[in-house]
Amino acid sequence: MDFVSRMLKVYQQLVEKTKSTPGALVENNKFCLSVHFRCVDEKKWSVLACQVKSVLKEYPKLRLTQGRKVLEIRPTIKWDKGKALDFLLESLCEF
C-alpha cells in the first residue's frame, strides 16, 4: 500500500473512531492528518487522544504530535519547513 492510500485509510478510521466525540474534526491534509479538538468539551480531550492513539497502534511508521488544540499524524521521516525549503531551492536550481 502506498503512502497516500495508507493516509486515506488512517483518515477514514479516525473519522469513524472519533465520530462519537462531539466537536472533533479530522482533516486530511494529504501528507498529514489533523484531529482538531478546539470545539471538544475539555473533559473529553483525553478520551479523544485515546481514540486517536488506538488507531495509530496499527501504524508504527506514523507519529503523533500535538499543536494548539490539534493532534497531528505524520510519517516518521525527518522533514520540516527548513528541509522542505532546501528541497525546493535545490529543485529550482536544476532548471
UniProtKB/TrEMBL annotation:
Annotated SUPFAM superfamilies: HAD-like
Question: Pathway involvement?
Answer: Glycan biosynthesis; trehalose biosynthesis
Record keywords: Hydrolase
Q: Which reaction does it catalyse?
A: alpha,alpha-trehalose 6-phosphate + H2O = alpha,alpha-trehalose + phosphate
Enzyme Commission number, as recorded: 3.1.3.12
Q: What does this protein do?
A: Removes the phosphate from trehalose 6-phosphate to produce free trehalose. Trehalose accumulation in plant may improve abiotic stress tolerance.
Q: In its UniProt entry, what is this protein called?
A: trehalose-phosphatase
Q: Which organism is it from?
A: Glycine soja
